[in-house]
Structures are given as C-alpha cells and as structure tokens.
Design brief:
With about 350 residues, this protein is α+β, with helices and mostly antiparallel strands. Helices cover about 30% and strands about 20% of the residues. The chain has 8 helices and 10 strands. It has a 4-stranded mixed β-sheet with strand order 1-2-4-3, with no helix packed on it. It is globular and about 65 Å long. Keywords: Developmental protein, Disulfide bond, Extracellular matrix, Secreted, Signal, Wnt signaling pathway.
Length: about 350
C-alpha cells in the first residue's frame, strides 16, 4: 500500500492531548455512523488529528474511517470490560475524552492507548480482508488439503502485519518525550493482542458431516481483546524513562520482563471522590455488589464509606409455551429484589 510521507509536526508536551491522544475522539465523532469520515473533509478534524495525521487522512480517507470505527469499538469494549470497576472508562464531551487525569500517564492511559489501538488495527485488518480499503490483496494462510478425512479450504485471512504498519504510520510522531515513549509501548501491547491470530472455520459440506471446512485466520474479537487488556491492567508496571537511551526501567527492580505488559509513569488516583477538573466522577451513588468476591463489591467501590440497601418489588411474569408456536405470559404476583448503592 502506498503512503505519502508524513508531514513533520512539532509536538510539545503542553499540547499533549492534541498531539498524541486526540485521535481517540475519532471514536465518538458525529456519534460514529459506520462511514463517519468518508464525507468529512480531513481539514475539519483539526481538533482531533495533529498535522501529520491530517496529511495521512488526506491521502488515506478510507483508512482513517476504519480507524474511527475500530476506535469506537475499542471504547465500547473498554466500557463493557471496566463497567464494574472504580474507573469505568467514562467518556466526556469536549477536549478531554476520558478526563484530564489521563494526561498523567497512569494505568488507565495505558489501557486506553492499548485497547483503542487494538480496535483500530483490527478494523483495518478486517476491512482490508473484505477489500474495503485500496491496495489490499488476499492473504491465504494455510494449505488446502485433507486432514483426518476433512477437506480444508482456506480463504483470505486478516493481514495483521499490514494493519500494524498502517496504524504505526498513523500514530507516528517526531516527539521523543516520556509521554510519546510510554504511548508507543502501550500501542504495541495492544497491537500484539491483535496479532494473536487463530483459525476460524465453518462447515460447507452437503451431508452435514462437516467433511469440508472453509477456514481463515482471524484476530480475537474486540471483546476478547478487551478482557485481555483488563487482565493486563491488574499487572501493569510502573516505569521511569532513562534519559540517556529512552529505555523503560521498572520502578520495582525485581521485574525483569515488561515487554508485553502495560506500563505507566504515575500512579492512578483512587477514583473515590469527585474531581471535575480531572474528569473523575467519584463513586457516591454507584451501584455495587454485596458479594465480596466481585470486582464491584461495595467494599471496593464505596472506598470504605459504606453503602445503603434498597429493597423493592416488581411485577413477576409467568410464561409458557403454547403449541404451536407461541409464548404466552401473564402476571403472577410480585418478586422482591435488593440493590446496593455507595454512600
């Protein structure tokens, strides 16, 4: 795929949000129709894309559209996977999509960089496989043939290497400050999760015996990637950046290998108390679980403030299958339920 050389952009730390992170907002641009960027001039995205990304957009409009769709799916996966945590990946309107605190390069910044990069990269690979992007060719991985009486026929697979190359060019920045170094590492963590391909097959035989299977190699779906990022959130590594060679050094010296782990520079806030300046909602009024083993247990979510218990009733319906072929329901009393909310 031919790309224009990216225009050089000066990226100052004071405008970090505009240089390295505003592209996240592609995921909520115009509420994200399935083809959000196609009819939008790239120049109108100046508050979302930096100058080099605008240049990229001018020459690769359809690719930026794929990035927008994938970014949106990454945001949804983030909100689904962190729904029961103190930080639940809330988004806001305006300049700071996830809140200003993410500028501090916390564990949450790492999650966002990894998961949104993964979503965008996976969408590029999917659209390339489906020939929705220019200069994409069919990538056949696997040899057609018979294995254990089953004939395997391979179709076009996800071209993860090309998707990674495209996304790397989109994210390219001349900056070499700590923020850029940390972001690049976490982008690569997300990219590596996309690269964990697996074979996906469907039966195409006529007899129902599945004697013929049509297969291709795909990436994990974005929800699975979101689950893996959430797992890495718990094992993320605090680092410093070596001023002489830009190497990442774990603060805890006993950690030897952090190449595939999320990394961060500053520890996260507790998210217990509201701080509108930094985009932190706090947990007062949040619903929680009375089960101590749940990630959203009241002990964790409520930050030691305790919780209130609300018991209520609602109509109960009893349904039965009527042959043939419908289901009939009728009210059959009330049922009681209990909910818990943080003080």
């Amino acid at each position: 795929m031919a790309f224009t050389s990216l225009a050089t952009a000066v990226c100052l730390l004071m405008v970090f949000n505009g240089c390295l992170a505003s592209w996240w907002s592609l995921g909520v641009y115009n509420d994200l129709s399935e083809r959000v960027v196609d009819s939008t001039p790239c120049e109108s995205l100046t508050n979302i894309l930096n100058s080099s990304q605008q240049t990229f957009c001018n020459y690769n409009r359809k690719i930026v559209n794929s990035i927008a769709i994938g970014t949106r799916r990454g945001i949804v996966a983030c909100q689904q996977n962190f729904a029961n945590w103190r930080w639940n990946c809330t988004t806001f309107t305006g300049e700071n999509l996830f809140g200003a605190f993410v500028k501090n390069n916390t564990r949450e910044t790492a999650v966002i960089n990894a998961l949104l990069t993964a979503g965008a990269e996976r969408q590029i690979a999917l659209d390339c496989r489906d020939e929705k992007l220019p200069n994409c060719t069919c990538q056949i991985n696997g040899d057609n043939g018979v294995v254990n009486s089953t004939f395997f026929l391979y179709e076009c697979s996800f071209d993860i290497a090309k998707a990674h190359d495209i996304m790397s060019k989109f994210l390219e920045t001349p900056s070499n400050d700590d923020t850029a170094i940390i972001a690049e590492h976490n982008h690569n963590v997300g990219s590596n999760l996309v690269g964990q391909r697996y074979r996906k097959c469907r039966c195409t035989g006529f007899s129902g015996s599945c004697s013929v299977q049509t297969c291709y190699f795909a990436s994990p779906d974005i929800d699975t990637i979101g689950q893996r990022v959430r797992e890495k959130y718990g094992s993320s590594v605090e680092v410093t950046v070596n001023a002489s060679n830009s190497a990442l050094q774990p603060v805890v010296q006993t950690i030897n290998n952090h190449d595939n782990e999320l990394v961060y520079l500053k520890r996260s806030p507790t998210f217990c108390n509201q701080d509108t300046t930094y985009g932190i909602l706090g947990t007062v009024g949040r619903q929680c679980s009375n089960n101590l083993s749940d990630p959203d247990s009241c002990d964790i979510i409520c930050c030691g403030r305790g919780h209130i218990t609300v018991t209520a009733t609602q109509p109960k319906q009893c349904c039965s299958f009527i042959y043939c072929c419908r289901i009939e329901c009728q009210d059959c009393g009330e049922e009681t339920f209990t909910e818990y909310f943080c003080k």
